[in-house]
């Protein structure tokens, strides 16, 4: 037959047996949260925590790989920028000295080739889409022999500048064995940094 629990049976305790019952009941009540914490810890079960650790380690590896690739890309970009700047510094003319440099080079090349430089023009126009580059179109007229022309072209080809030959005309002079030569080539010119800053100021 079912018997109802009577709190008066253990409280207040009347003897040692009652005290023991009360202590046992208190221990049971206090152990319930502890058992729950063991079975269902707040952060998850050991298996769940281990799975999270594995996932976090994988994410860390992925982020490290991404960081390494980003650093490598940044290094390559910087290397490319430095190489491009060195190329421009070496092969492109400075706007402030472009005209005098080209004239001096033409005069020297003509002298070394044994050909006569009659006249030259070198207008400059900006390159569309850039703020710091222009194109100088050099048109020069010479007089000399075929061998002189070959020698001149060889010197232009070996120029430390980036000279892009656009057109060449050679018309024989009647009865002299010499040629009237028209040569046109392009040279890249870069604006100096100080000029760009000055133009940007109001």
Largest beta-sheet characterization: 6 strands, mixed
Kindly estimate the percentage of residues that lie in beta strands according to DSSP. Answer: 15-25%
CATH topology of the domain at 93-200: Alpha-Beta Plaits
Q: Show unreliable segments.
A: 194-202
Distance between the termini: 104 Å
Order of helices and strands: HHEHEEEHEEH
* Count, helices: 5
The CATH architecture category of the domain at 93-200 equals: 2-Layer Sandwich
Helix share, percent: 40-55%
Q: What does the overall shape look like?
A: rod-shaped
Q: Would you identify the CATH H-level superfamily of the domain at 93-200?
A: Ribosomal protein S6/Translation elongation factor EF1B
Total number of β-strand segments?
6
CATH class of the domain at 93-200: Alpha Beta
Radius of gyration: 45 Å
The helix-and-strand class reads alpha+beta
Mean pLDDT, as a whole number? 79
Topology, pairings included?
Layout: H1 16-39, H2 46-91, E1 93-94, H3 98-113, E2 116-121, E3 124-126, E4 133-144, H4 146-157, E5 163-172, E6 179-190, H5 193-200
Helix pairs in contact: 3-4
Describe this structure in words.
With 202 residues, this protein is of the alpha+beta class. Among the domains are: 7-39; 93-200, Ribosomal protein S6/Translation elongation factor EF1B (Alpha-Beta Plaits, 2-Layer Sandwich), CATH 3.30.70.60. 52% of the residues lie in helices and 22% in strands. It is built from five helices and six strands, in the order ααβαβββαββα. The chain has helices at 16-39, 46-91, 98-113, 146-157, 193-200; strands at residues 93-94, 116-121, 124-126, 133-144, 163-172, 179-190. Strands 1, 2, 3, 4, 5 and 6 form a six-stranded mixed beta sheet that branches. A hairpin with a 6-residue loop joins strand 5 (163-172) and strand 6 (179-190). Helix 3 packs across helix 4. It starts with 15 loop residues before the first helix and ends with a helix.
């Amino acid at each position: 037959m079912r018997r109802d629990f009577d709190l008066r049976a253990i409280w207040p305790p009347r003897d040692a047996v009652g005290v023991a019952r009360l202590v046992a009941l208190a221990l049971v009540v206090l152990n319930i949260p502890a058992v729950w914490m063991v079975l269902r810890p707040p952060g998850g079960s050991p298996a769940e925590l281990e799975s999270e650790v594995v996932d976090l380690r994988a994410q860390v590896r992925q982020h490290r790989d991404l960081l390494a690739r980003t650093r490598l890309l940044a290094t390559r970009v910087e290397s490319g920028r430095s190489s491009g700047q060195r190329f421009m510094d070496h092969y492109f003319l400075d706007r402030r000295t472009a005209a005098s440099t080209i004239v001096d080079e033409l005069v020297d090349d003509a002298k070394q080739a044994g050909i006569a430089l009659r006249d030259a023009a070198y207008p400059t126009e900006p390159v569309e889409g850039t703020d710091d580059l222009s194109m100088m179109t050099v048109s020069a007229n010479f007089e000399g022999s075929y061998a002189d022309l070959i020698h001149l072209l060889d010197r232009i080809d070996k120029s430390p500048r980036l000279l892009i030959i656009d057109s060449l005309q050679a018309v024989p002079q009647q009865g002299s064995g010499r040629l009237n030569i028209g040569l046109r080539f392009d040279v890249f010119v870069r604006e100096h940094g100080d000029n760009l800053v000055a133009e940007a100021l109001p």
